[in-house]
Design brief:
Layout: E1 7-8, H1 20-24, E2 31-34, H2 38-51, H3 66-90, H4 99-105, H5 112-122, H6 126-139, E3 145-150, H7 171-180, E4 186-191, H8 196-201, E5 218-224, H9 227-238, E6 244-250, H10 267-295, E7 308-312, H11 318-327, E8 332-334, H12 350-357, E9 364-367, E10 376-379, H13 383-393, H14 422-433, H15 439-450, H16 455-458, H17 461-466, H18 496-503, H19 518-537, H20 543-571, H21 582-594
Parallel strand pairs: 1-8, 2-3, 3-4, 4-5, 5-6, 6-7, 7-8
Antiparallel strand pairs: 9-10
Length: 604
């Protein structure tokens, strides 16, 4: 793996980063594309093929294995166009404003390649300069076109006669097959937890095993919330002969999209556990993986393969970027939500971009909008909010369920349906009307039902608007965008060069909103989350929930003490925006200590 930048752009929704590789990969920047919505991928493939003179043959949904074929075709077009972009800049002259100059200017300051670029700029000997230019052209490599599968989105449809389809036709497995059959040399990111049949199915594809040179054409990245999860999932795959090339740690709450909260474990202590144990984990997984490869007669790894550890979620300054890499010995970081303000990198339609660029901190909030029942980071000014409210006001709550990616509820039907659908919400609201609830309780439950949004279409709409693609299923006013709360500290629109210079400390594009460190910001989110969990469980508290809430509180207090112990390290070598954490930590320690978990009443 050859990562020339110290950061990557994570997957963002279904469409915000759907073609980001075409915008940034030729500058050596790696990014992640969601491959869960094949209709969107097919429309984007048609758009980019026609725009770039590539023959386009549509893949009809009625065609056998059409979902996997569409995903393969889109991945292949991305690869073709990124390769074309790389060749284009390799052939450019080193003149001001050219992409080849931009490629090297964007590199981190300590990059050996950038050092050679500086040497070339200062060279006055024409022959030597030409030789250096040739070396630099050869050094140009694209960023990786990585893809993402949300493991839990794995519905298995049925035939017209109602019989279940073969398991290989499930949503997650077809997405994996589509990627595996593509020409890409990159990684697949598994997020949202463990899916047994997905992890079993990966063993069916040769590109995930070492070749004759001991190299992997396709690699696995696991997005994890803590060290224990990494070890457990890493072992499961290693025993199948599959090597995990990267553990991508993400903040449970200080992130965009779905928020998978930990039991009060904060990112600092989690990163510390990886720092202390990464080498022993790597060696253990290596032994398991090679043993499995040998037992099945496959080529084994001759040397211990690389295993990257990265972190993403809430990073806002160059100091935090470098501190995370240096102190926790990380191989890189992920910067997501701030790139929503960078039109050169992501898909955000003009109306939504303007709303983001002028947003206030309170516009970002943790919602119950996801049909999966998982907390979802939302934006109050997104078009979907008004569309949903208008439907409710007209007595027509719910959304047409077209994509069916998030169907999971069987309260009222034998076949799963989506909780944001018209059908489910009518049935649920009829039940509430007949329950005879007190008015306040009814209003609370009513709001929770109609809050659900159609993420399948809403998260894909902005890319179509941005690229002038017309589709009846995507209403222009129905855009859903899901930035993390960290975006509150950025405003306006930002160029790609400005954002990268900000990450590397060459400039500052932050707005004037007062900001604590990423560690304190995450702590605040977890304290608020604990309060909500106590309120939510107060009337139905049982022994397991009681223990969970107490463990959550204990973990928060432990995390606060940990941050006190590293505060001096955090403040070292800081030039700007390095707030002392002690006062905030003392205050939140008192707040957490004062939180009372309701007493568990045990019937006699």
């Amino acid at each position: 793996m050859n990562y020339i930048h110290d950061f990557h752009i994570p997957v963002m929704g279904l469409s915000f980063s759907v073609d980001t590789p075409l915008k940034v990969a030729h500058f050596g920047i790696s990014s992640v594309v969601s491959i869960m919505e094949e209709d969107l991928l097919e429309m984007m493939r048609e758009h980019h093929s026609k725009k770039n003179g590539i023959p386009f043959e549509p893949i009809d949904k009625k065609e056998f294995d059409s979902r996997a074929k569409r995903i393969t075709a889109y991945c292949n077009v991305l690869d073709q166009l990124v390769t074309r972009n790389i060749e284009r800049i390799r052939n450019q002259e080193f003149t001001f404003g050219s992409d080849i100059v931009k490629y090297f200017e964007l590199l981190p300051e300590l990059s050996p390649v950038k050092a050679k670029y500086r040497e070339m700029l200062l060279c006055t000997d024409q022959d030597k300069r030409s030789a250096l230019e040739g070396d630099l052209r050869k050094a140009i490599v694209p960023g990786y076109i990585d893809v993402n599968i949300m493991s839990k989105v794995d519905n298995l449809g049925a035939t017209k006669t109602g019989e279940p389809l073969p398991v290989e036709q499930s949503d997650a497995l077809t997405a994996l097959r589509g990627y595996a059959q593509s020409v890409l040399n990159s990684s697949i990111v598994f997020s949202a937890g463990y899916n047994p049949r997905l992890y079993n199915y990966i063993a069916a594809f040769e590109d995930f095993y070492p070749n004759a040179n001991g190299m992997l054409k396709k690699r696995v990245i696991l997005k994890v919330s803590d060290y224990r999860s990494a070890v457990v999932q890493g072992k499961i795959l290693a025993k199948k002969g599959i090597w995990v090339s990267e553990f991508r740690i993400e903040s449970g709450l200080n992130c965009g999209g779905h928020a998978f909260a930990t039991d009060g474990l904060l990112c600092g202590p989690i990163l510390q556990s990886f720092k202390e144990n990464r080498h022993s984990m790597r060696e253990e997984l290596f032994a398991l993986c090679n043993a499995s490869l040998e037992a099945t007669g496959r080529i084994t790894f001759s040397d211990l393969p690389m295993q990257r550890i990265t972190y993403q979620g809430g990073i806002g300054t160059a100091h935090e970027q470098q501190f995370l890499i240096d102190f926790y010995e990380l191989d890189g970081t992920g910067w997501g939500s701030p790139f929503l303000l960078v039109p050169e990198a992501t898909n955000v339609d003009d109306s939504t971009l303007n709303a983001l660029a002028t947003a206030e901190p309170d516009d970002y909030y943790l919602s119950g909008a996801s049909p999966l029942g998982i907390p979802f980071n939302h934006f109050r000014k997104s078009g979907s909010q008004k569309l949903r409210d208008d439907r409710v006001a007209a007595g027509k709550p719910g959304n047409p369920c077209v994509k069916k990616l998030l169907i999971s509820n069987t309260e009222y039907t034998q076949e799963p349906i989506c909780t944001s659908s018209i059908k489910y919400q009518r049935l649920k609201l009829d039940e509430l009307k007949q329950a005879g609830l007190p008015e306040e309780e009814y209003k609370k439950r009513f709001a929770a039902v109609v809050e659900k949004d159609c993420l399948c279409t809403g998260l894909g709409t902005t890319a179509l608007l941005k690229n002038d693609i017309v589709n009846k299923q995507h209403k222009p006013e129905g855009v859903i965008i899901c930035p993390g709360p960290n975006l509150a500290y950025f405003s306006g629109t930002i160029t790609l060069a400005q954002m990268i210079d900000h990450i590397y400390g060459r400039t500052n594009v932050r707005n004037s909103v007062e900001r604590a460190s990423l560690f304190v910001n995450e702590l605040v989110l977890y304290v608020k989350y604990l309060h909500k969990e106590i309120d939510r469980n107060a009337l139905t508290l049982n022994q397991n929930t009681f223990r969970t809430l107490n463990a959550f509180k204990t973990n928060l207090l432990s995390g606060i003490e940990y941050y006190k112990s590293i505060n001096a390290d955090f403040l070292k070598n800081c030039t700007y925006e390095c707030p002392d954490m002690i006062a905030d930590l003392e205050r939140y320690a008192k707040d957490v200590l004062a939180i009372e978990i309701p007493s568990l009443v045990i019937a006699s």
